[in-house]
Specification:
Length: about 200
Amino acid sequence: MANVGVNQGRRRFLTATTAVVGGAGAATALVPFIKSWLPSERAKNAGAPVLQDISKVQPGQRIIVGWRGQPVWIVNRTKAMLDTLPQVKNRLRDPDSKVADQQPKFAQNETRSLKDKPEWFVVIGICTHLGCSPDFVPEIKAEPFDPEWKGGFFCPCHKSRYDIAGRVFQGVPAPMNLVVPPYKFVDDKHILIGVNPEGAA
């Protein structure tokens, strides 16, 4: 019986092809495995904490993050914005945040934020009247809806107004301040929404 010659080139080609296909398959299987470590959309909607990078948020800028199926605004307030807070106090319905369930205790202050980082404002962007999402109107200038506007949030649905700390004005349909969710700083570049700082309620 004659010996059949082995085609070494073909064997190397088949071995290499098998290795490439196997490697691609392993990588494809690994992606869902790694993704399984991250909170699913369902988990996020149920309240799983959400980590957000804030390193590129400029002073005066707002970004929007999803948490529990709601828009959460993160605003990097300027000193000029913070300076307006005492100026509007006598026009607000709850300037001292006495309605306790509208914010964690650590945010029950004039800035409605962590005391050591007052420039960062984290709030659920839903009007407390009928659930519309207010507009971010940060400019300190007269507006058609308020000639003494000092910057803040204006709900176009029914004309409710909030200052730059989410405190509701008197004489508008919204009954309460915007809701501040639990949050903490993981480091100088990241906020974790949905978790209070250690030792805070």
